[in-house]
Design goal:
The chain contains three helices and twelve strands. It has 179 residues and is an alpha+beta fold. β5 and β6 form a beta hairpin.
Length: 179
């Protein structure tokens, strides 16, 4: 079954999000107004590892959820910017570590029922420390954590951020099994 679109009306716009009201015909239900969120910028995330088997994570507070938690470096690719270059820039800005290698890991639609938000995740290795993070607003702490600790954080709910949870879980599971 495929929904039929009969048009769209913009409700809100900003440099980060557009909200639309789509007139759609849903088989078995009929015509309804359906909210759609589009993102003008591509979302990028990373799993950053070193030769010692550690993962580079940020500890931060998210005011929308009111929660503290660990996250992978992530951000936006500017229009026309290569997503791999964007995540390299984000890793350095947020952590103070400059990537040596950036390789595609996985892509996924984060909220396929309501949004065009697509995350592109990368595996970053060979990092070189270049100094304190240039974007101090990103985290309270940046740390290299051993794999066992990352697994404990994942299973203990201390990595509540969806993109971080998805990227780390994919890396530790299917990515490794496929190699």
């Amino acid at each position: 079954m495929e929904w039929q679109s009969h048009g769209r009306r913009r409700v809100y716009t900003s440099p980060y999000v557009d909200v639309w009201l789509d007139d759609v015909d849903i088989p078995g239900i009929g015509r309804v107004d359906h909210h759609v969120i589009t993102m003008p910028k591509a979302s990028v995330t990373s799993v950053v590892t070193n030769d010692a088997g550690q993962f580079l994570l940020l500890y931060r507070h998210r005011f929308i959820t009111g929660r503290w938690g660990w996250e992978v470096p992530a951000g936006w690719a500017e229009p026309g910017e290569d997503p791999a270059a964007a995540i390299g820039r984000e890793v350095e800005e947020e952590t103070g570590w400059r990537p040596g290698s950036v390789a595609p890991l996985v892509e996924y639609d984060a909220l396929a029922g309501i949004s065009t938000m697509r995350f592109r995740s990368f595996h970053v290795t060979g990092c070189e420390y270049v100094g304190e993070p240039s974007d101090q607003s990103e985290s309270s702490r940046v740390a290299w954590l051993p794999e066992a600790e990352v697994v404990r954080l994942l299973t203990g709910g201390e990595i509540p951020d969806g993109p971080s949870l998805a990227a780390l879980s994919y890396f530790l599971g299917p990515h490794r099994l496929a190699r």
